[in-house]
Design goal:
It is a single chain. Helices cover 21% and strands 33% of the residues. With 370 residues, it is α+β, with helices and mostly antiparallel strands. The chain folds into 3 domains: 142 residues, Gyrase A, domain 2, CATH 3.30.1360.120; 88 residues, 2-Layer Sandwich (Alpha-Beta Plaits); 75 residues, Elongation Factor Tu (Ef-tu), domain 3, CATH 2.40.30. The strands form 4 sheets. The protein has a 6-stranded mixed beta sheet with strand order 11-12-13-10-4-14, sandwiched between helices. Strands 15-18-17-16-19-20 form a 6-stranded antiparallel barrel. The chain is globular. 43% of the residues are buried. The mean pLDDT is 96.
Length: 370
Amino acid sequence: MENNNLEKTILYKNHICLNAKMVNFCGFYMPLQYTSSLEEHMAVRKKSGIFDVSHMGKFILCGKNTIKLMQYLTTNDLLKIKIGQAQYNCLINNNGGIIDDLVIYKISEEKLLLIVNAINIEKNKNWINYYINKYHYDDINLIDLSKKYSLLAIQGPLSLSYVQNLTNISLDKIPFYHFKIGKFSGFEKIFISCTGYTGSKGLEIYVPNEKTEKIWNDILEIGKNKIIPCGIASRNSLRLEMGYRLYGQDICEDTTPIEAGLSWITKFEKEFIGKKILQEQKKKIRKHKKFISFIIDEKGKIPRKGYPLMDDNDNVIGNVTSGSFSPVLKKGIGLGYLWNNYKVNSVFLSIRNKVIPVKLVKLPFIKLNN
């Protein structure tokens, strides 16, 4: 039975026709899987898969003070990217907590495209508008295109070659975290980027809703027996193999970029909200939790969100925020935090009252040859 309170993407009926198992994800009906999450995962790692991720928020922010404002509200440095580039960034609150992680595209020096998490659309919009009004940036206009545009992600090492005939853009010449605007599937002025959430080579297509179904069908037709539709289950295991954080699990407003292992997108040479707190965490003046990533070598043991992390004296010292089976490594992998920046030589995981050692590793969990 359908839940009338859930939103649907333009491709909802297409997913039903493809026998997708639909679930509630961030207030949307989204395909969990079409065949199996394992098959879809490995298709993206070996060939290609297509995801409907139209639930994501899409804002245009334009005006002469746009970059000045976003420099203050985010931790990364927008002055370091050129027109045609994108940047992974995060909005933070006054305490340094992550309001949202997002990708920002620089369309011009006065125009940005912000891709935000679906669960945070209204929160982000209110936060940015608050500061537009606070500083009287009357020139800045925030346009919410979330319900007017769809977003398709084609991911996998063979993705670009499979769909090249649908566009006049040389896809293999778009560098990572860059974008082009051109013809795709017969439509003009289609926004195409290379900023995927799986770690595999691929592209994302931002499409006006009325053009989405044709482009989806054209991609599946040209990629018949090559590109398979994929759901959020495989998207989750794919992002986890790369160690990408998921908002609401691995990061939230109670977590700072320093705690989350995102110091690389925290640029202290500029001014931004919460800077002093993050500087103190970076210098270890202020106590904070520590982000970790780990592998379980014991066969069949899979970490899950909420499982406790323990020291060698059976003291609970942290928790798992994301965990899954890695189809590539054929082992359990996980992300989590040690509270109060615990210094320990060994970390253990409690699974159904059994204590299992875990191996702390650097991210990503796997190396890809895209």
